[in-house]
Each structure stands twice: as structure tokens, then as C-alpha cells.
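Lecture notes, unit on protein representations.

Consider one protein chain, 158 amino acids long.
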Amino acid sequence: MELDRHDRHLLRLVQDDIGASAEQLAAQVPLSPSSIQRRLRRMREAGVIEREVAVVDPAALGRPTFFIVSLQVERERPELLNQLRRWLAAQEHIQQAFYVTGESDFVLVVAAPDTESYDALMGRLVSENPNVSRFTTNVALSVVKRGLSIPIPPHPAD
């Protein structure tokens, strides 16, 4: 899908606040509210906007602990990697999972209510995925920045 400068501007704005009304967005993008609604609908239908989510304050839920996990697998056979990917995607405490280059094969961001829950998750990971050879864990002491915004380059004509 070709994105013009207005689409790109809209994407920057809705990444910061998807709850902004079409009228509020129209105050910042030189388009009518109905045009903004059509553009957003088109971007949703095309898959440019994958999902709309709420960002929840961790303190409101008892301050979960964040763990950064590096996983190594024994074999990188496609069927084994796909099985592990499906398992990781199905776990509610795993916020993000990346297949990476370097010493590790996967890097995970895990938000668990406590270390016991994290330990149980990792126990299940190892027992249900025999291809996982080892993992290392870093515990986040504080959150400096948290987000999922994607930098949007300017339109080539700009």
C-alpha cells in the first residue's frame, strides 16, 4: 500500500494516541474528519494498522517484574523453530519475542507478576520445548522507556 504524507502523519499521531477523534486529528492534519476516518479504515483493512491496544500502567496492576530473556536452541530446523514460535506466541506473559542473530536465537520480553510465575513459565518452556538448549535472564530494575511505536520516514516527495 502506498502511503502519502497525510497517511504518514496520521500514523505518527495514532501511534501516540489511537483514541484521538477524527476531529482532533483533523486539527493537525489538513484533511476533513471523514477523510481521516476513511484513511484510517483503509490502513486497517490493508494491515498497515495491525491492532489497536491500550497501554496499561504496570503500577495499577501491582508492578509486574520485567525479564529480558535470551534463548538458545539446539537445532534450527524449520519445524522445530515454528513449534517454538507458536508456543512463545501463545504465552500471555511473553510480551515480545524476537528471532535474532548473534549468540542467542531468540530474545524475549516477559512481564510476570513475580519471580515464581516467571520461574514456572520458564520451567514449562524447557519441558514443553526440548529443542531449547539454554536461556539466560536479565531482570529489569526499572523501565526507562516502553513502547511499540515504529519510526515513520517522511514521504519520498517531501
